């Protein structure tokens, strides 16, 4: 896939910047419920996964018309990459904070950028997958279903978070 590295480098940069800005959107909106569907409403690990999810989904959507011929399984490669990033962030967070017994803000921020890199490195690597290219229609359909499930999960668990650590707001526990 000649020349596609630009899509991935630009995407990583744009998603890192927009995800960082998205961190402040809910509070800046006056805690507007609709903004809370795409921006973190508290400091839980789950809510911060939105910082990765929504910018990547938007980037994937916006680039689709430009890359669909060059990367026929675009939705699939981006969704697989996104899932890698969304899983990697909490795994690394709970691993390092479990070892240290606490979390460190700069490490938490760095984990977001590691997640962004994981998305785009995985997606770039998958563009070479003959299987995904040959089954692009099915792979893209499956990817859209997975993205819809993630979006529903973010909406449901923002409104009604289960009493599990990943959904817990550490600031609410210290007050």
Outline the structure in words:
With 175 residues, this protein is mainly α. It has ten helices and no strands. It has helices spanning 5-22, 25-28, 33-36, 45-48, 50-67, 74-100, 105-126, 130-134, 136-159, 170-174. It is globular, with a radius of gyration of 17 Å. 33% of the residues are buried.
Secondary structure: elements and pairs:
Blueprint: H1 5-22, H2 25-28, H3 33-36, H4 45-48, H5 50-67, H6 74-100, H7 105-126, H8 130-134, H9 136-159, H10 170-174
Helix pairs in contact: 1-5, 1-7, 5-6, 6-7, 6-9
Shape: globular
Indicate the mean pLDDT: 93
Based on secondary structure, the structural category is mainly alpha
The total beta strand count reads 0
| Major sheet description | none
Brief description of this entry?
The chain is mainly alpha-helical and 175 residues long. The protein contains ten helices and no strands. The radius of gyration is 17 Å and the shape is globular.
């Amino acid at each position: 896939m000649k020349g596609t590295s630009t899509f991935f480098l630009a995407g990583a940069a744009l998603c890192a910047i927009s995800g960082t800005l998205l961190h402040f959107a809910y509070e800046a909106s006056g805690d507007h419920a609709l903004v809370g569907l795409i921006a973190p409403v508290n400091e839980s690990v789950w809510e911060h996964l939105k910082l990765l999810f929504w910018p990547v989904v938007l980037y994937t959507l916006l680039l689709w018309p430009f890359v669909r011929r060059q990367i026929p399984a675009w939705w699939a490669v981006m969704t697989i990459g996104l899932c890698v990033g969304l899983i990697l962030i909490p795994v690394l967070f709970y691993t390092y904070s479990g070892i240290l017994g606490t979390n460190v803000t700069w490490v938490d921020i760095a984990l977001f950028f590691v997640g962004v890199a994981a998305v785009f490195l995985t997606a770039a690597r998958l563009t070479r997958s003959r299987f995904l290219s040959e089954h692009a229609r099915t792979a893209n359909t499956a990817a859209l279903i997975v993205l819809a499930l993630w979006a529903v999960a973010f909406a449901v668990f923002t409104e009604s978070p289960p009493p599990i650590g990943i959904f817990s707001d550490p600031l609410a526990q210290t007050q």
